[in-house]
Amino acid sequence: LISSTVAVTGSVAASYYEELKHLYPSLTVARSIEELAGALYSFMVERAAENTGGRNCRACGYPNCEEFIRALRIGIAKLTLCPQVSSRVSVHLDGKPLLLNPFVQSMIENTLRGMLSSLKGVGKPRKIEVFISSPPEG
Q1: Fold category of 39-86 in CATH
Q2: pLDDT in tens, 10-49
Q3: Residue 55, Cβ neighbours under 10 Å: how many?
Q4: d(Cα 71, Cα 30) in Å, to the nearest integer?
Q5: How far is CA 85 from CA 47, 50, 51, 69, in A?
Q6: Is the pLDDT of residue 76 over 90?
Q7: Cβ neighbours of residue 102 under 8 Å, at least 6 residues apart?
Q8: What is the C-alpha to C-alpha distance for residues 104 and 97, in angstroms, rounded to an integer?
Q9: Torsion of CA 66, 68, 70, 74, to 10 degrees
């Protein structure tokens, strides 16, 4: 339970702060909404750092992933700038993710939505999944 706990808040945090910090030094104990918000933001940034993959694509506007994560940590960058972390469109080739910058993501999304919107009864789907397999050789 402790390894998957992000933070302890409320009356438990207030009443048992010292004991919790002593027993679980790496556990975040938030005694105020500001402390909780800060802890959640830090947690989100660290998860984002794991997902950037160090590809250094510069789609975010920063020279490399390390600079982007540094800017995230101090609050001057937005998570949505990184296509690896917050992509709306993903393409996998033989199971491996293909890096798509925001322009290419938008192009693929708009093209698919445009084609599908011309079909009767499709409406406006919230999620579209397309799988394309090569025909068997031979």
Answers
A1: 3-methyladenine DNA Glycosylase II; Chain A, domain 3 (1.10.15)
A2: 777 778 788 887 888 877 777 788 888 888 888 888 887 8
A3: 14
A4: 24
A5: 9, 9, 6, 11
A6: yes
A7: 59, 83
A8: 14
A9: -170
